[in-house]
Amino acid sequence: MPGITSPSSPASAADRHPTPLNPSIECPRCGYDLRGAIQSWTDACPMQGVCTECGLDFQWSWMFRAQLHPWLFEHQWRKRPIRSAILTTLLSMRSGRLCREAILIHPIRLAPLAALLVLLVVAAAALHASGVAYAEYLFFSRYGRIGWRGGTAYEIRIALSETGRFLAVYLLPVLLIPPLAFVLIPTSLQQVKVRPAHIARIWLYSCIGVTGATLFITAAQLVWSLVTGFDAPTWLHPLEWQFIPWSPGMPWWTYVVKSTLLPIWAAAMLWVSLWWWNACRRYLHLPDATLTASLLMTIVLLASYLVQHVISVVQQLL
User: Fold this and answer.
1) Model-level pTM?
2) Within 10 Å of residue 91's Cβ, how many Cβ atoms?
3) Which is nearest to 127 in space by CA: 230, 208, 220?
């Protein structure tokens, strides 16, 4: 009939070329243009597809319904900033659930995630400083000037300095090394051709999860002090957790374990390992997710411990 073309005719193939109303369709993992596969269809859209560039198995329905997530902060920060920030922070501490919610087809918005991370860091630092100031106030009100070493501002500076040194030695390497080590693994950027934006997205979510947990612990410490009038117990101070308590005559190997392998560092390593394993398996859909995550965390473990050792040697020399 006039005006009607078969699905395989040149006219219908031209209709499938990208236009403002029919944009290009790319592989969500590597960004490969999939229009060639679409133009090869003759009478119907298949259910399953495979990217010829990176080997990702996907459903074609994903490609045509890509939309913003209903409550993740990176997509809803304009409409629901408070609700989406709280939900995203809570969910970032559950890597398995987050990697099922933030999937490959969702558009990547790194700027809102970076802004949320900065906001959480500032909030955690403010709560920590408030807790130190209130603890100093309680001490001063009970004992007057006994043990008062320069005022609240001095105590805050000391506490922030010690916390910053600990973070720089133990926690920051655990958080900063994984995206760098991910580049060295052949099954990530070289063979599977994962886009760097995906790695940046995973890394920001992992940092948000750690910072969110720190914020909640710091808030719990402050609330405890406000309610009870005393400093929070040791179990609410992760920086004071110890594998082995100090004792005179401690062997050198025990001292090494105590001074370097702190429980908070071990907990961070375990959490980051679980996070990147879920990211490789459920978010990136890597073919060898467990092997890739194992290689990744081996690199992180060795590099993190090397950073601790180098900084410890420098501190001793100074």
Assistant:
1) 0.80
2) 22
3) 220
Q: In this predicted model, what pLDDT tens digit does every residue of 231-262 receive, in sequence order?
A: 888 888 877 777 666 666 767 666 666 666 67
Whether the CB-CB separation of 236 and 257 falls below 8 Å is answered with no
For 193-212, write each residue's pLDDT tens digit: 888 899 999 999 999 998 89
Q: What tokens were used for 102?
A: 């933030």
The answer to whether the beta carbons of residues 293 and 187 sit under 8 Å apart is: no
Two tokens, residue 155: 């105590």
